[in-house]
Design goal:
There is one protein chain. This protein is of the alpha+beta class. Helix content is about 30%, strand content about 25%. The protein is globular, with a radius of gyration of 17 Å. The N and C termini lie far apart (about 35 Å). Mean pLDDT is about 75; it is low at about 75-100.
């Protein structure tokens, strides 16, 4: 299986893909743990950037380029910039971000009605967790840290009807290692 390129991941993170390209990337992400891990790292890089006050459209273009560069730096081997990609082996993601948190519900690609607001996963070695829900464009909708393995989406968070969302659980183990569930999707009913 061929992995997504840094450009494809960057375009996905910056919502620069057309509908068909986005669907192809999402289809690949459902079966490829390595690319999901890279996407999560890109989301973390973007989310950790300080919020800007008033920004112009050119700032958004610059931010997109910065996100693309961050993803490229994370996946491109040191000392290989400038060499053609066919001469470089793909880097495996660190084992600390390999999917190992098991999702219970909602299952990937589940269809949820407005009353379903609970997210559950299996415990991972006494970890603390961060649950994140993003919209189809990868923008965070809600995130919460917890010690439990179930969270309920607060009533103040409204999910749009007939929309696709993604959710994942990152776990921080007592030894400092982190693991993830990988990205799971769900749809809201009409």
């Amino acid at each position: 299986m061929e992995h997504l390129s840094s450009e494809e991941l960057s375009a996905y993170l910056t919502n620069s893909l057309n509908a068909a390209e986005r669907e192809n990337v999402e289809r690949h992400l459902t079966v490829c743990a390595e690319c999901r891990s890279e996407l999560i790292e890109g989301q973390r890089a973007i989310a950790s950037a300080p919020p800007a006050k008033k920004v112009s459209r050119s700032w958004f273009a610059l931010a997109g380029l910065a996100a693309a560069a961050a993803v490229l730096i994370m996946v491109w081997p040191k000392g290989e910039i400038g060499r053609s990609p066919q001469h470089i082996e793909r880097i495996s993601p660190p084992s600390t971000i390999a999917p190992s948190v098991s999702i219970v519900s909602p299952a990937s690609d589940a269809v949820l009605d407005a009353s379903t607001r609970t997210f559950t996963w299996k415990r991972d070695d006494g970890s603390s967790y961060r649950v994140t829900i993003t919209d189809q464009a990868g923008r965070p909708v809600w995130s919460q840290a917890t010690q439990d393995t179930t969270v309920a989406l607060p009533d103040s968070i409204r999910l749009a009807a007939d929309s696709r969302y993604f959710w994942y659980v990152d776990a921080l183990r007592p030894d400092g290692r982190s693991v993830t569930s990988g990205i799971n999707s769900f749809h809201t009913s009409r």
